[in-house]
Structure formats: structure tokens, C-alpha cells
Write a structure and sequence with these properties.
Structural class: alpha/beta
Strand content: 15-25%
CATH superfamily: Vaccinia Virus protein VP39
Radius of gyration: 17 Å
Number of domains: 1
Order of helices and strands: HHHEHEHEEHHEHEEHHEE
Largest sheet: 7 strands, mixed
Strand order of the largest sheet: 3-2-1-4-5-9-6
């Protein structure tokens, strides 16, 4: 397996830079567009939600106050530890954290009213270039398995940091085509990052996206960094 330098740096962040990653994700979706989009798909109040590849608990922090229960699943213990701390800080007692793989979820069949996977499987074509299709299909199969009949399955992926409209990508586009072949419907929204200053935007984004992105942010004078996001939905 070979992965490019940027992907390798991002993989390292997930295992050793969870706090830095959390600084990034809390700045995203400055206008709440993603939350409103998910709200429009299903009833969050009283729902059992499964967040696949939960990371530091972005979705759990948003929805725990309204959901009946939120299950967080991720392979990275460092990310889950940050999630545990953040959820404790807001007094969320209706969450369960699972260290597990998206391709073999540690959950029962038909247990979820909403299954989410945010910014997870889009890494597979980079990290598993020879067999990513098989791995994505295994993960999607698991999402379908745990979804109750009629429950929405939602996959969220980037369509370009620093882009005001969706960009094409030679590795992600075949991945999107695979999901659409399996019945997912794709739309897109803006989920811009907002920071207090250009310098802070460059610092935080540079840790994850690399020095070229940091330089661009400074050059463009962005304290608000544009971000396009794909929403892929399927009803179980």
C-alpha cells in the first residue's frame, strides 16, 4: 500500500494529533448548514444514532441532547479519548463509545434510526488503493445491517477545502460513483470554516491540510475558509 504525503500526514493526525484535529472540526460548518441538512432527513429527537468513524465526537456533541442514544465507533483510541472528554464536558450521558472498525461494527442488526459516517470512507482510495472498493462496500454493508427499515444512512465527504464550488478529484469521483451505484443520492452544501483571524485559520488548517493550504489562506486573507461538502443519502 502506498499513500501520498498529504494523506500520510492526515492519517498521523488521526492517531497522534486528535486535539489538533478537534480544533479544526469545531470551526467547520460555521453557518450550521450540515446540521440543518441532517435534521431535514429524519427526526433526531428520541432517535438512536450511530456515528461510524466518529473521531472526536463531532456529531455526538451536536445531537446527544436531542437523541435517545448516540453510539460512537472509531478505530483510533486517541480520537475517542478526546470525544469522551468533550462529551463529559457537556454532560452527555446518553452516549456509548466503541473502539471498532467500520467494516465490522460492534452493534446489533437494525438498531439505529440514523446511521452517519462523516469524512471516513473517502480516505479508503488513498489508504487502500488496490482494494478500496471492496472495503467501502464492506463498510456500507455494515451501515445497512445496523439501520432499521426506513432509517436514513448518511455519508458526508469533502468536495474541496478552499473551494467555493465542488471540485473534481481523480480518486474521490470513482468513490462517489460507487456509492451512487449502490443507490446513494448525492447533493452538496457549503460548510465553511470560520476562525477569529487569518493567522489562526492558517495555523489550524495547516496542521491538517499541510503548508500549501496554510500559505494559500494567508495569501487569500481567509479567516473564513470555504469548504464544499457532499451529502450522500440512502434509505435502508
Amino acid at each position: 500500500m502506498t499513500i501520498d504525503a498529504a494523506s500520510e500526514a492526515q492519517a498521523a493526525v488521526y492517531s497522534t494529533g486528535a486535539e489538533a484535529y478537534d480544533e479544526l472540526i469545531v470551526a467547520e460548518d460555521a453557518d450550521g448548514t450540515l446540521v440543518r441538512t441532517i435534521d431535514a432527513l429524519t427526526t433526531i429527537d428520541g432517535a438512536t444514532i450511530v456515528d461510524v468513524g466518529a473521531g472526536t465526537g463531532r456529531f455526538a456533541r451536536i445531537f446527544a441532547r436531542r437523541a435517545r442514544h448516540v453510539h460512537l465507533v472509531d478505530r483510533a483510541p486517541a480520537m475517542l479519548e478526546v470525544a469522551r472528554q468533550r462529551l463529559s464536558a457537556i454532560g452527555a450521558t446518553n452516549t456509548t463509545i466503541h473502539e471498532g472498525d467500520a467494516r465490522k461494527l460492534p452493534l446489533e442488526d437494525a438498531c439505529a434510526d440514523l446511521v452517519l459516517a462523516g469524512w471516513v470512507f473517502g480516505h479508503f482510495p488513498h489508504w487502500m488503493p488496490t482494494d478500496w472498493r471492496t472495503e467501502v462496500e464492506a463498510a456500507v454493508g455494515e451501515m445497512k445491517r445496523i439501520a432499521r427499515p426506513g432509517a436514513p444512512i448518511v455519508i458526508v465527504e469533502t468536495l474541496g477545502t478552499g473551494h467555493e464550488t465542488p471540485r473534481e478529484h481523480p480518486k474521490l469521483d470513482p468513490y462517489f460513483e460507487l456509492l451512487e451505484w449502490h443507490g446513494f443520492v448525492r447533493s452538496w452544501i457549503r460548510t465553511d470554516y470560520a476562525f477569529l483571524s487569518v493567522a489562526r485559520a492558517a495555523e489550524v488548517c495547516g496542521k491538517f491540510f499541510g503548508p500549501e493550504m496554510a500559505e494559500r489562506i494567508v495569501r487569500e486573507g481567509w479567516s473564513r475558509v470555504p469548504e464544499c461538502t457532499a451529502i450522500l443519502t440512502l434509505v435502508a
